[in-house]
Amino acid sequence: GAVVSQHPSWVICKSGTSVKIECRSLDFQATTMFWYRQFPKQSLMLMATSNEGSKATYEQGVEKDKFLINHASLTLSTLTVTSAHPEDSSFYICSARERGRGSNQPQHFGDGTRLSIL
Amino acid sequence: AQKVTQVQTEISVVEKEDVTLDCVYETRDTTYYLFWYKQPPSGELVFLIRRNSFDEQNEISGRYSWNFQKSTSSFNFTITASQVVDSAVYFCAPYDQTGANNLFFGTGTRLTVIP
């Protein structure tokens, strides 16, 4: 089956640090990847939609200068949390839509990244 | 735009009991899709089922079954003979064909199966 690898799985760092999270589709090409954020005991909230070779589309309320998204290839999207602060601590999950498959087909999710900012 | 309501925020059952998780959705689309995902304590999301609005047949997969009632806009999920490994948060997620063109997650139901 289609596998999405997300790295790192856990990050603890000091306030002010920038953190990069990678999302890779291992055995398929992904034209579209999604980035979600999930606070404890809450649902997944879509942050942005990332299309290969173009700028990401951010959801309302998500600062694009704060959360930099790059989708330079069909197998890799990255999310960089710039100058992270404690309020950015959350669980970040990516998902990928397989190239050539309809947009209503199941997305493939990574295992998530737990980000803790001290 | 979609809206989804998962009435139960938390449910606890004793192992081997049956449990039903409710999902009520709102949509203006005539054609739509509904998903259920499982999120165990480790955090990853596991796809369980995708159902399109044309198919109102109930579906059974092992101990899992889904009851889709278009007339009441419900897509309920039942686990039969629950096991401890079923403990997780379960999300009902309509597919949003407008705007984000993406999944829209409900608030989730946290299921705890007590041994």
Residue runs with pLDDT of under 50 for 5 or more positions of chain A: none
Main sheet of chain A? 7 strands, mixed
Fraction in beta strands of chain A: over 45%
Mean of pLDDT of chain B: 90
What percentage of residues of chain A falls in helices of 4 or more residues?
under 10%
Gross morphology of chain A is globular
Q: Distance between termini of chain A?
A: 37 Å
Query: What's the SSE pattern of chain B?
Result: EEEEEEEEEEEE
State the distance separating the first and last CA atoms of chain B: 40 Å
Report strand % of chain B: over 45%
Oligomer: heterodimer
| Low-pLDDT segments, ≥5 res of chain B | none
Describe the main β-sheet of chain B briefly.
6 strands, mixed
Class from helix and strand fractions of chain B: mainly beta
Mean pLDDT of chain A: 92
Number of strands of chain B: 12
What level of helicity do the residues of chain B show? under 10%
Please give a handful of descriptors for the protein shown.
heterodimer; A: 118 residues; seven-stranded mixed beta sheet; four-stranded antiparallel beta sheet; 0% helix; 53% strand; B: 115 residues; mainly beta; 12 strands; globular
Show the helix and strand layout.
The complex is a heterodimer of chains A (118) and B (115).
Chain A: E1 4-7, E2 10-13, E3 19-25, E4 30-38, E5 45-51, E6 57-58, E7 67-73, E8 76-81, E9 90-98, E10 108-109, E11 113-117
Parallel strand pairs in A: 2-11
Antiparallel strand pairs in A: 1-3, 3-8, 4-5, 4-9, 5-6, 7-8, 9-10, 9-11
Chain B: E1 3-5, E2 10-14, E3 19-21, E4 24-26, E5 33-39, E6 46-52, E7 59-61, E8 64-69, E9 74-79, E10 88-96, E11 102-103, E12 109-114
Parallel strand pairs in B: 2-12
Antiparallel strand pairs in B: 1-4, 3-9, 5-6, 5-10, 7-8, 8-9, 10-11, 10-12
